[in-house]
């Protein structure tokens, strides 16, 4: 393990585990909460797609679009006449606004638990330690940008690549992990 400037070991492995767990558990909550509603909303579209010989859109991928929308990552799809259209399905009223609470909540709790596990009491050290969970969160966030993408011929639809990597993979875990870590250290013994 590497040491921080304060001489304490940086908890790389626990941070990675907490980050991955925050991502996976959050997606699981979104899936369990929204999958049936997503299936119902996709039923008509999937019937047309299958009638035309295409593959139906799986609910797990469409739930992933909501998951990324909760990080303010746009869902993008091809526009008629070329180009791309970007939308946020939550903001447009196609899903509960409460989904926006999940990424900060899971990352705050993750940062809090990580810092509590290493018993830091200085809020600055706690914030720095909390940011380390971003390493575990970033990898599945970056993979998810591609896993939740549907490709047909030369077109695709799914989470926006750049904002998916930057917002969901870096900004959210760094900011909210740091806040959770600072709170844990400030309220520690």
From TrEMBL:
Database matches in InterPro entries: DUF7978
Record-annotated membrane-spanning stretches: 12-33, 45-68, 98-115, 127-150, 162-186
Domain of life of the source: Archaea
Domain DUF7978 residue range list: 3-186
Keywords linked to the UniProt accession: Membrane, Transmembrane, Transmembrane helix
Name listed for the protein in its UniProt record: DUF7978 domain-containing protein
